[in-house]
Amino acid sequence: VRAMKAAGYLDIDEPFDGLFTQGMVCHETYKDEAGKWLFPEEVTKEAGGAVQVETGRPVKIGRSESMSKSKKNVVDPEAIIENYGADTARLFMLSDTPPERDLEWSDAGVDGAWRYLNRLFRVVAEPAVPVTERGSRAPATFDDAAAALRKETHKTIEGVTDDIERFHFNRAVARIRELTNAIVKFGESGGGEGGAGTGWALREALEATIKLVAPMTPHLAEELWHLLGHEALVAEESWPLADPSLAVDDAVTIAVQINGKLRGTIDLPRGAAQEVAEAAALRLPAVAGATDGKAFRRVIV
User: What is the C-alpha separation between 181 and 82, in angstroms, rounded?
Assistant: First the structure.
């Protein structure tokens, strides 16, 4: 393009600032006894190998290669959509691997994405604790369980936002699933047994989860948004914003090494003084045993 512009053949700007090359979608290859390529749906796997569905004859399983019509190692999208839905196929492809790497298509991976989306639906449709009404004002205080859920929510918003900007879609999906797990645990624990801010924190977490997953699973997201009492489309909502004060951990885990060898870890308040960190490290049994009666040449915090 640059050469053509320099020669005067083009008078337009570059269509993009940088090119992002995606990986290929791969699948196993199969051949019958005559060496003829077979489609995946023509093969069924059994203990110790695979056979052709129509004849019951043995099938040779080849290496996984990028999908191509010539080798028939392709998956019919209509069959996936009919069995699992378009959202499941999309979520699996985004969650399995970074987009710049090859994706290994697997029935187990698709099934796992489908089971997660079913779980997410149940979390919203059948909340373990009552959810506050839409538009309710935030309470003045939150109990420990509700405050912990809010921190997890805002850390997820911050992380997913950054991951999407960096094209780390698989990490974004993983964070959303972790938030879903936190919501489930919150409900199983009784949400602080109905303490301050329980229902409000749960609604905040659910709405954030739906907004974050909406670009990946738009059909399910719209249904879940409606179940929470919204009349407008979630696609028309603004992207969630993380509260910086809630997205930062109050404590951090620090590795303790002696001469480059890990001896243990300590949990410290964020911004703890060097003297506090050093004293906590020396209280570790492994550190105390390794340094007993010895002088330090250098301490790095």
Answer: 28
Provide the CA 23 distance to its chain's centre, in angstroms: 19
Task: For residue 24, give the nearest of 88, 104, 107 by alpha carbon.
Answer: 104
Give CA–CA dist 24/104, Å, rounded. 9
Helix axes 86-95, 169-188, angle to 10 degrees: 110
pLDDT of residue 211: 98
Identify the residue with better confidence: 12 or 277.
277
Question: Can you point out the beta strands (E) in the chain?
Answer: 25-27, 30-31, 43-46, 49-52, 58-61, 65-66, 103-104, 251-258, 261-269
Residue 281 CA to residue 208 CA, distance in Å, equals 38
* 5-55 pLDDT tens trace: 677 776 666 666 666 777 888 898 999 999 999 998 899 888 878 999 889
DSSP string, 69-110: TTTT----HHHHHHHT-HHHHHHHHHHSS-TTSPEE--HHHH
Question: In the chain, what percentage of residues exceed pLDDT 90?
Answer: 45
Q: How far is CA 84 from CA 81, 115, 131, 133, 180, in A?
A: 5, 10, 29, 32, 20
pLDDT of 214 reads 97
Give CA–CA dist 277/203, Å, rounded. 38
Would the pTM count as exceeding 0.90? no
